């Protein structure tokens, strides 16, 4: 019985370590927009509104599926450092999707609040014809 308990504890610790490598808590370490989160970062997801709570830093140009990261369906706010991104409610860029450009999004729209499962950079410049209509 003792060996099983120790094995279970070791497995849980290893799983927590794998998830911790993908996202880091921000408590006590506020995000410094002036310095940026590091090279290759285009967007940062936050587990609470107003850029609070845990964060998931998107490295590279896409994330196909957040299911094994510990951050699936957790984002409530978003900061886009550069480029235009599309974030979706399902893996592989499916489900409800919205486009976000550089800026701070203190609260995600209802369609994506606590629902983001994938995202990708779609362009460095505004990717659509005509001016955006934010009233829709």
Give an account of the 3D structure.
- With 136 residues, this protein is α+β, with helices and mostly antiparallel strands.
- The chain has one helix and nine strands; from the N terminus they run H-E-E-E-E-E-E-E-E-E.
- It has one helix at 2-20; strands at residues 24-25, 41-46, 54-59, 62-63, 77-80, 84-90, 94-100, 103-105, 118-123.
- The strands form two sheets. The protein has a five-stranded antiparallel sheet, with no helix packed on it.
- The longest helix has 19 residues, at 2-20.
- The radius of gyration is 17 Å and the shape is globular.
- It starts with a helix and ends in a 13-residue tail after the last strand.
Main sheet summary = 5 strands, antiparallel
By secondary-structure content and strand pairing, the structural class works out as: alpha+beta
Cα-atom radius of gyration: 17 Å
Mean pLDDT figure: 77
Gross morphology: globular
Spatial ordering of strands, largest sheet: 1-3-2-5-8
SS element count, helices: 1
Fraction in helix: 10-25%
β-sheet strand percentage: 25-35%
Low-pLDDT ranges: 10-38
Q: Tell how many strands the DSSP assignment holds.
A: 9
SSE string, helices as H and strands as E: HEEEEEEEEE
Terminal CA distance reads 59 Å
Question: What is the secondary structure topology, with strand pairs?
Answer:
Elements: H1 2-20, E1 24-25, E2 41-46, E3 54-59, E4 62-63, E5 77-80, E6 84-90, E7 94-100, E8 103-105, E9 118-123
Antiparallel strand pairs: 1-3, 2-3, 2-5, 4-9, 5-8, 6-7, 6-9
